[in-house]
Amino acid sequence: MSDRLDAFLSQNGFGTRSAVRQMIHFGAVKVEGRTIREHGHLVRGRRVTVRGQEVVELITSATLVLHKPLGHSCSHDPAEAPLVDELVPEAFRHLSMNTAGRLDRDTSGLLIVTTDGPLIHQLTNPKKHLEKRYRVVFSGVLSSQAVNRVAAGLQLEGDPKPTLPAELVLDGTNAEGLGTATLLLAEGRYHQVRRMFEALGGKVERLHRDRIGGLDIPADLPPGAMRPITETELLLLHGRSAGSGGLAKPVAP
Fold first, then answer.
1. Comparing 128 with 252, which gets the higher pLDDT?
2. N or C: more exposed end of the chain, with fewer CB within 10 A?
3. Is 39 left (phi over 0), alpha (psi -120 to 50) or beta?
4. φ and ψ at residue 184, rounded to 5 degrees
5. Within this chain, do residues 45 and 90 fall inside the same structural domain, yes or no?
6. Burial code of 1-30, b = ≥16 C-beta within 10 A, e = fewer?
7. Distance CA 222, CA 105 (A)
8. What's this model's pTM, rounded to 2 decimal places?
9. What is the mean pLDDT of the segment spanning 62-84?
10. What is the rounded distance in angstroms from the CA atom of residue 95 to the CA atom of residue 49?
């Protein structure tokens, strides 16, 4: 809750700061049953009413964890619907939220949706060296030097600089005869995983991100579900938990 009465009312949908100050001045606002005409009156932890209606404090910030399903866009443009925005729980839809990086429409997996600009920077800035883990199903035959080329930094078509060194493990083939792989990246260029596999001679058929930092997709989060992140999960985002390795047993995308 904001300390000042005018800020508190404005943040909770009663108009601009100047509008709520007029409301306060004309005696429409009470704090703990007493009419208050001072817009700087401190209200933290107190009951506030406007013309008899109790003010219910709105959520002003949030960080949510999402298991993004296939088919949804991270754009805010209604023309690109269905959008990740449509999956945000009702209690948070009044907030201006953004995803920390993007997963394209044909990629599923772990995504953070937040009002916290510094957190978005922390999760997306390649200088932070925060790894994201991707499970890949691909067709085609990769270069015999694929693992080494990825580890050294891969030159992508149209990019002046090679990718940052990354870790690629070729896991074998699935029941469909397609290749499976696990890729750990510490950056997020446009369609990077797909472009990397093209540069290696393959084509991504399915793509799923199952970890950011030390946070795996929570077991209670099915595709399409979104909920507030826990304090423990937030800590895990910033690095691996003690004893956890980077490349766990592959999960089929």
1. 128
2. N
3. alpha
4. -110, 120
5. no
6. ebebbbbbbbbbebeeeeebbebbeeebbb
7. 17
8. 0.79
9. 97
10. 23
